[in-house]
Amino acid sequence: MTHILAIDQGTTSSRAIVFDGNMQPVASAQEEFTQHFPNSGWVEHEPADLWATVQSTCKAAMDQTGLGVDDIAAIGITNQRETTVIWDAETGAPLHNAIVWQDRRTAQMCERLRADGHGDQVTAITGLLLDPYFSATKVKWILDQHEGSRDRAKAGKLLFGTVDSFLIWHMTGRTAHVTDATNAARTMLYDIHKGAWSPEMCAMLDIPIEMLPEVRDCASDFGVTDLLGGETPIYGVAGDQQAATIGQACFEPGMLKSTYGTGCFALLNTGDAPVASNNRLLTTVAYQLNGKPTYALEGSIFIAGAVVQWLRDGLGIIANAAETQALADEGSGNVTLVPAFTGLGAPYWNPECRGATFGLTRDTGPADMARAALESVGFQTRDLWEAMRADWPDGGDAVLRVDGGLSANDWAMQFLSDVLGGPVDRPAGLETTALGAAWLAGMRAGIYPDMDGFAATWAREARFDPQMSEEDRETGYARWQRAVAATQAV
Ligand SMILES: Nc1ncnc2c1ncn2[C@@H]1O[C@H](COP(=O)(O)OP(=O)(O)O)[C@@H](O)[C@H]1O
Ligand SMILES: O=P(O)(O)OC[C@H](O)CO
């Protein structure tokens, strides 16, 4: 019982990583699955694909190690958040495809709820903003499509879950209907102050409370699975951005991390009291241990690494993401790209606007576009940083810890430090999300250190300090702000 298996069920792929007794990754496997776009702005996954790729990647990772079921002390799960599944409690058949967090189909529903004056109530109870991003309106949408589904849900015949919950139900032989507090906090159905499902939110959206899973601490007993051919406990669960916050050991109030994958999600630990945002950030649960929640302010940006993918797949000006580093160096810096491909997230929350480019000239070329794309990631983070500083005035000295695929890009990280005017730290291990889930499970299983011991193992690979003049920084940021305003005005 020396190793931990971490499952990272993400938006575009499922991954399984085996960590040894020293919390080092020793094997990993990854598998992509099909994204479904049935309508403009709609994004779906087939639940069976999520479950199948989790099974196959776990097997593939385990096969690489030569370890057996008895070597795995526990499993930790981390997952794409908010994505919504409803399934039959007996057969497991999904009532609908999973509606993914990026899906905007409930934008009008949110608009109507806002017009009916529900916006403040939603924020007061859930810490979130009334936006299609979260699970609740997706649940309502699915139930609205299927006559009689609410009665079935009330009778316990239909279950709702975020992806962790859906996976655990399958992993435990269709028995455990559970989730953790971080995933619950993203549904817009959870009262983050009371630490319980909100009857008010359920009533507002006509969602039977009976269909919601039981909420547990992040390190707790989520059930036993025969996934590895024996009995393995599931001891750790956290939404992927919270798992990265844990993996980055942001355990003290004021510590913050930003993860640059498809999108960018920055979380600032605010300690044991939820901080209400005056700047359109989200108040959420960072983690919950021993029955005690620790809260965070979160800024969610929908497009970060995805803008680099667009350079590759949409424009065809690069062959792979890493090429942007050298290209950006040659860019003029005169082009501004606002990658509002699916609207804008925090702090603008504008689901309707779309991307725009400014400053094009006849000699604009791939290098300028690559630079503008990487700059957009830095500028969007600055937007969040400004909002966080305003909500949490003590946050000015914090060092931003970064991770995720795009954080490997030195040019982007240097620009990020420049535009923030503060240091940026990149850790030695970039598997922070999976590590967070592994640590939760390993700590609970008694093979990994406690919180302080774990935090002491965090090591820096690189620090980026600002090199840009104050004048350039502020001129550049003002250019970005004008571009965002113009983008929203179109
Ligand atoms: N060297 C790089 N420079 C710029 N972007 C990168 C680089 N490497 C990866 N990316 C971007 O990072 C993203 C992948 O990061 P990852 O953390 O695996 O994301 P996710 O978990 O959301 O799929 C992709 O969008 C890719 O374009
Ligand atoms: O799967 P990722 O890494 O794109 O993360 C998705 C987030 O959890 C959405 O809130």
From TrEMBL:
GO molecular function per UniProt: ATP binding; glycerol kinase activity
Protein name: glycerol kinase
Domain Carbohydrate kinase FGGY C-terminal: 257-443
EC number: 2.7.1.30
Top enzyme class: transferase
Catalytic activity reported: glycerol + ATP = sn-glycerol 3-phosphate + ADP + H(+)
NCBIfam families: glycerol_kin, PRK00047.1
Organism lineage: Bacteria, Pseudomonadati, Pseudomonadota, Alphaproteobacteria, Rhodobacterales
Domain of life: Bacteria
Organism: Tateyamaria omphalii
